[in-house]
Design brief:
The protein is of the alpha/beta class and 262 residues long. It has one domain (60-261). The chain has helices spanning 2-23, 25-30, 33-36, 38-55, 108-114, 127-141, 166-174, 215-240, 248-261, and strands at residues 57-62, 72-76, 94-99, 118-120, 145-147, 178-182, 199-205.
């Protein structure tokens, strides 16, 4: 049954994305930029509804009161395609730094360009990265929320931390708060797999790390806070969802946590 539900959900999920982008394009491109973002936000809400109704997966967000006003950096754990869009309804005016190749995709790239997403060549250095940072500073001055995944790419639940130092440089240059976000959607929506599992999990928004720290001190603080919260949520998620199969990384981390507490 879980396999059939997963197949049905994936089919409806992508159909929902493509049809909305096509049908709502005239409205989206005629609306002012910020108001137009209500369309992707409503799409995200519809995905949550589909996930609950078809798969039986629900979530709750803890710590919304920790989100500051104005511009800041949101730094979530990255495990799944789910966390690329899931928090959009709760963000005022988010902006991503994304691979320039994504801007070439029909419809998606046009949507992203209207929202002033920041394209970057991942191999870029020097002047190109300076221009990217200048764009990011401008968006921060406009009170937007820059979404950065500190580990750079999707990592399975419980995997050994592999944070990229780039976020420390961005923190130093932008001088805005960084809001860490711990969660384990990868248990229910595994990366690189079509299976979707029912259950319930929490998203924990941690208190912001204020600007002004030395980049090394910030980097160590971010890792310590996110990993502590992630370990706590891993234990809680597994306890509350004993039926969900776990990846080897999660099983290994659970054993380590058990040994550390004994």
């Amino acid at each position: 049954m879980t396999t059939l539900r997963s197949i049905f959900f994936n089919t409806v999920f992508y159909a929902n994305l493509i049809l909305r982008m096509i049908v709502l394009s005239p409205v989206y491109f005629l609306m002012p930029r910020k108001k137009a973002f209500s369309i992707p936000k409503n799409w995200a809400l519809s995905c949550h509804w589909l996930m609950e109704r078809i798969v039986g997966t629900t979530f709750e967000i803890k710590g919304l009161e920790n989100i500051p006003k104005g511009g800041y950096i949101l730094a979530p754990k990255h495990q799944s395609f789910w966390d690329t869009f899931a928090l959009l309804p709760w963000l005022d005016d988010p902006v991503y730094i994304l691979k320039r190749e994504l801007m070439w995709i029909p419809l998606f790239g046009w949507y992203a360009k209207k929202q002033r997403m920041i394209p970057v060549d991942r191999g870029a250095r020097g002047k190109v990265m300076a221009a990217v940072m200048e764009r990011a500073k401008q968006e921060m001055r406009n009170g937007r929320q820059l979404i950065i995944y500190p580990e750079g790419t999707r990592r399975p639940p419980g995997a050994e931390p592999l944070y990229k130092y780039g976020i420390a440089r961005i923190y130093r240059d932008l001088q805005v708060p960084v809001v860490p976000v711990a969660m384990h959607p990868g248990i229910f929506w595994p990366r690189r797999k079509f299976m979707r599992y029912p259950g319930h999990f929490k998203v924990r928004i941690l208190p912001p790390i204020e600007p002004g720290l030395d980049p090394d001190a910030f980097f160590a603080t971010l890792i310590a806070q996110l990993e502590k919260a992630s370990d706590e949520l891993l234990l809680e998620t597994v306890r509350d969802n004993p039926h969900v199969p776990l990846p080897p990384t999660a099983l290994k981390r659970l054993a380590e946590l058990k040994n550390a507490s004994s």
